[in-house]
């Protein structure tokens, strides 16, 4: 039984434009899958639809079934808010692209991490403080100082680590990472990717990694879905996609990634 | 930078505190009885009447001190009415769905376009001229302004990614309002309510000047200005005294609002 099963998902705007068309894929527990495509290809909308959080005015059809251990199997589309609240944070949760906007600017970091712990694990007082400390300690050094800081007082990399700590706090069965490294500079990107991979592997979580960057996706996932103009154009193991892409768009993606790489190598040889 | 800002707040608090002090003193001690008309008419500042007397022979200092009470009470009352009703209505419309929101905002626009003066006359017609009627009218006029501001602020916060992020981790609506929406809008709201306090004080003075506020013999600053305007060339203190106090109070409140804006915003506080 797969953890996430998306069948024939279509997402439309109010004026009838189809942003995601007949998308089907599934994801098993503990599996790491990349969702790749250019901006505007419907990647982020798909992740929001999985959480049952499509922006107002958008409608989705098809089927999205979340079946996490210990939680009722749920058809997300059309589900009641109450049911979805139970799933969010535990069955699945999201790490967003820009941690500065994904964290409340007026709430101390510690409080923001405490929020899901309070709700899901029902921790209070000293136990809650300790849990926040532990959650932060897993992703960065000096958790006490970070917990007291406001988001604008820490660096971009630290903010993304905090966002990851928030997402991991309730041990979700599926972690959706929506371009989690795009807003960061390259050296920090690598650290964040490593942090994500180790945490996901240690906890046996499933990972849906959304990105436009093939190199980044191939570093952390086993299987790749290629999305273009809201349609699934190719699907396969990372090896297969990188070495023998069949669709023209995938070939283009691989080609440009290789060009970048060979440019680097040429510079290195000089 | 930070020095200058806190100086604004401090200056505002001093001016505002001055008027509050005058009002507090007036509760326990007044130079004369407010209705004592034995001081001789229209005397100049001097002894024993420090600011002179008005055309009925009442002590001006006493009148002005009682007026401080009325001005502060009117401001506080109107802000209480406008603030509570306005914020509630604003949060409700901020969360409302598409068509309900459209309908409510149209209603708010109509209410804002409705002149406070006309509203005041309607309230007075319904209830008789009194300080209460004036405060009620000003407060009701304020509801629409505060509600519209609150609605925009709520909408802006709800569109932020951190709300989506909070929802992806399963935060419920109640917690979103109390934990994210209110803390993020209240600095702006408090600043705006402080400004509205100043507006309300001026509005009460205007209504009283027109005879729609506190009826005689209540010593509203607005009514004192009206009564003294005929004799402004012979005994200018009758106009200057309430006028200056009105200026001090409104300026003080506006400076406080300005200072609060910076003091309440942690991102500005830290960068300053």
What's the Cα radius of gyration of chain B?
22 Å
Mean pLDDT of chain B, rounded to whole units?
Answer: 88
Structural class of chain A: alpha/beta
CATH superfamily of chain B: MetI-like
Strand residues, percent of chain B: under 5%
- How much helix is in the residues of chain A? 40-55%
**Rg result of chain A:** 19 Å
- Specify the helix fraction band of chain B: over 70%
Average pLDDT for all residues of chain A: 91
One letter per element, helices H and strands E, the order of chain A comes to EEEHEEHEHHHHHEHEHEEHH
Task: Tally the beta strands of chain A.
Answer: 10
CATH-assigned fold name of chain A = Rossmann fold
Characterize the main sheet of chain A.
Answer: 6 strands, mixed
The biggest beta sheet of chain B is recorded as: none
User: Helix segment count of chain A?
Assistant: 11
CATH class of chain B: Mainly Alpha
Overall number of strands of chain B: 0
Features:
heterodimer; A: 270 residues; alpha/beta; Rossmann fold; four-stranded antiparallel beta sheet; 10 strands; 43% helix; 23% strand; B: 272 residues; mainly alpha
Describe this structure in words.
The complex is a heterodimer of chains A (270) and B (272). With 270 residues, chain A is α/β, with parallel strands linked by helices. Chain A has helices at 43-51, 81-87, 99-102, 109-120, 125-137, 143-148, 156-168, 186-203, 214-220, 238-243, 248-269, and strands at 4-12, 18-27, 32-36, 59-66, 74-75, 92-95, 174-178, 206-211, 223-228, 231-237. Chain A has a six-stranded mixed sheet with strand order 6-7-8-3-9-10, sandwiched between helices. A four-stranded antiparallel sheet of chain A has the order 2-1-4-5, covered by helices on one side. The longest helix of chain A has 22 residues, at 248-269. The mean pLDDT of chain A is 91. Chain B has a single domain (2-26, 59-271), classed as MetI-like fold, CATH 1.10.3720. Chain B contains ten helices and no strands. Chains A and B meet through helix 2, strand 6, helix 4 and helix 7 of A and helix 6, helix 7 and helix 10 of B.
């Amino acid at each position: 039984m797969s953890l996430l099963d998306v069948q024939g998902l279509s997402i439309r705007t109010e004026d009838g434009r189809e942003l995601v068309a007949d998308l089907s894929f599934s994801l098993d527990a503990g599996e790491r899958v990349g969702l790749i495509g250019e901006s505007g290809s419907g990647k982020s909308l798909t992740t929001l639809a999985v959480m049952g959080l499509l922006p107002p005015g958008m409608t989705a059809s098809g089927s999205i079934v979340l079946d996490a251990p210990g939680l009722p199997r749920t058809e997300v589309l059309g589900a009641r808010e109450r049911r979805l609240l139970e799933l969010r944070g535990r069955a699945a949760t999201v790490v967003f692209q820009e941690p500065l906007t994904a964290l409340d600017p007026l709430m101390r970091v510690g409080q923001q991490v405490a929020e899901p712990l309070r709700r899901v694990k029902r921790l209070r007082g000293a136990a809650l403080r300790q849990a926040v400390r532990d959650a932060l300690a897993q992703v960065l050094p000096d958790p006490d100082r970070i917990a007291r800081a406001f988001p604008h007082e820490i660096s971009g990399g630290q903010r993304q680590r905090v966002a990851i700590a928030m997402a991991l706090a309730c041990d979700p069965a599926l972690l959706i990472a929506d371009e989690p490294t795009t807003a960061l500079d390259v050296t920090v990107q690598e650290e964040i990717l490593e942090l994500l991979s180790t945490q996901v592997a240690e906890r046996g979580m499933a990972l849906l990694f959304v990105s436009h960057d093939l190199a980044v996706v191939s570093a952390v996932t086993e299987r790749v879905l290629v999305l273009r103009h809201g349609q699934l154009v190719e699907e396969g193991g990372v090896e297969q996609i990188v070495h023998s892409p069949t669709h023209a768009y995938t070939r283009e993606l691989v080609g440009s990634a290789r060009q970048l790489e060979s440019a680097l190598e040429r510079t290195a040889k000089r | 930078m930070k020095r200058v800002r806190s100086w604004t707040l401090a200056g505002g608090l001093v001016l505002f505190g001055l008027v509050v002090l005058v009002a507090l003193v007036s509760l326990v001690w007044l130079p004369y009885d407010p209705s004592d008309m034995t001081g001789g008419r229209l005397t100049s500042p001097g002894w024993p009447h420090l600011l002179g007397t008005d055309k009925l022979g009442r002590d001006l200092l006493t009148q002005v001190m009682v007026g401080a009470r009325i001005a502060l009470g009117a401001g506080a009352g109107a802000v209480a009415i406008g603030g509570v009703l306005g914020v509630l209505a604003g949060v409700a419309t901020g969360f409302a769905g598409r068509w309900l929101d459209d309908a409510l905002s149209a209603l708010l626009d109509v209410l804002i376009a409705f002149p406070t003066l006309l509203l005041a006359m309607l309230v007075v017609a319904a209830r008789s001229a009194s300080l209460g009627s004036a405060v009620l009218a000003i407060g009701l006029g304020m509801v629409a302004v505060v509600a519209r501001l609150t609605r925009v602020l709520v909408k802006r916060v709800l569109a932020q990614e951190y709300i989506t992020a909070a929802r992806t981790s399963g935060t419920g609506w109640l917690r979103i309002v109390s934990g994210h929406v209110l803390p993020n809008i209240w600095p702006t709201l408090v600043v705006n309510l402080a400004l509205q306090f100043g507006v309300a004080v001026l509005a009460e003075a205007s209504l009283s000047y027109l005879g729609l506020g506190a009826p005689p013999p209540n010593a509203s600053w607005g009514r004192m200005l009206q009564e003294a305007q005929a004799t402004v060339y012979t005994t200018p203190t009758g106009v200057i005294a309430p006028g200056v106090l009105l200026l001090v109070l409104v300026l003080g409140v506006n400076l406080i609002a300005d200072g609060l804006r910076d003091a309440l915003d942690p991102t500005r506080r830290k960068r300053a």
